[in-house]
Amino acid sequence: xxxxxxxxxxxxxxxxxxxxxxxxxxxxxxxxxxxxxxxxxxxxxxxxxxxxxxxxxxxxxxxxxxxxxxxxxxxxxxxxxxxxxxxxxxxxxxxxxxxxxxxxxxxxxxxxxxxxxxxxxxxxxxxxxxxxxxxxxxxxxxxxxxxxxxxxxxxxxxxxxxxxxxxxxxxxxxxxxxxxxxxxxxxxxxxxxxxxxxxxxxxxxxxxxxxxxxxxxxxxxxxxxxxxxxxxxxxxxxxxxxxxxxxxxxxxxxxxxxxxxxxxxxxxxxxxxxxxxxxxxxxxxxxxxxxxxxxxxxxxxxxxxxxxxxxxxxxxxxxxxxxxxxxxxxxxxxxxx
Length: 337
Ligand SMILES: C[S@@+](CC[C@H](N)C(=O)[O-])C[C@H]1O[C@@H](n2cnc3c(N)ncnc32)[C@H](O)[C@@H]1O
Known about the structure:
By secondary structure, this protein is of the alpha/beta class. The chain folds into 2 domains: about 40-45 and about 140-330, Rossmann fold; about 55-130, Immunoglobulin-like (Sandwich), CATH 2.60.40.1180. Helices cover about 20% and strands about 30% of the residues. The protein has 7 helices and 17 strands. It has helices at about 85-90, 145-155, 175-180, 195-205, 220-230, 255-270, 290-300; strands spanning about 40-45, 55-60, 60-65, 70-75, 95, 110, 120-125, 125-130, 165-170, 185-190, 215, 235-240, 245, 250-255, 275-280, 305-315, 320-330. An 8-stranded mixed β-sheet has the order 1-16-17-15-12-9-10-11, sandwiched between helices. A 5-stranded mixed β-sheet has the order 2-3-4-5-6, with no helix packed on it. α5 (about 220-230) runs parallel beside α6 (about 255-270). It is globular, with a radius of gyration of 20 Å. The termini are far apart.
């Protein structure tokens, strides 16, 4: 049996998916022709401690992180080893995820030093945004994505005309804002009104309220279908789907059922000279070999290379260990543009 709640995003697992029931989708992935892109694996992308973010310690099923000015303590299934730091260091945390009430939002956090608001100021390489205490132990950002953001920014900055970016399952918009700051036109799609509002708020904090960003509250598959019909094209597509999720009209998203179809739609949305396709999967039942095989099938005939591996955060301090957070697979062309 899989667990009802997955690691990210907080979407409940949909009940039975009836073949013809509301929200159910039965999509058949297309068989593509042409050569598969080359393959590079395993690629382990790691995040080192910075001023903006550091993994201070991990162990005993928890992690201790510094997000800008705040030290945050929260559960981490992958931290099956023993912590390196003394208990006294862990006790200095500004915020601890307790998860012990059914309340939404901050009710599930404890603030041992002084009461904190729902948000606090954060930045990533000079881009300001807000950290956020959410009811699913998340803090509004997934810092291990930094290497993908860097690859995306390099690709955008290397292009003469503004790149077009589609960010599906865009959450609080950090990737969207980094893309916009680098000069891209961005379409940000998320099924949650709250997430869209957070994204817009972050755009304000980053001083990017007037940047060319379209904020779309919509089911990712529905939106991609519509864009394919409209003949829209994107140079960069980011896909960071949860394991289970719901669109605003109750559309069911299940990673293992819907991903092949969504990748086909993504294929149909790529511009003539695409720059990057990034897929991350925080659902550890999958392997990066499977993600790689799927991406190479979906992107047959496109040339380039699919590289796949894991996203890892390196601890701060002596003898740091690497905390694995997710699997990924990404496609890139062989020679620039
Ligand atoms: C955990 S987040 C992605 C994280 C983000 N891209 C990042 O790395 O910071 C997953 C997001 O998918 C959204 N979501 C869930 N089901 C969806 C669906 N069917 N269509 C679009 N977005 C969906 C959730 O609202 C949530 O914001």
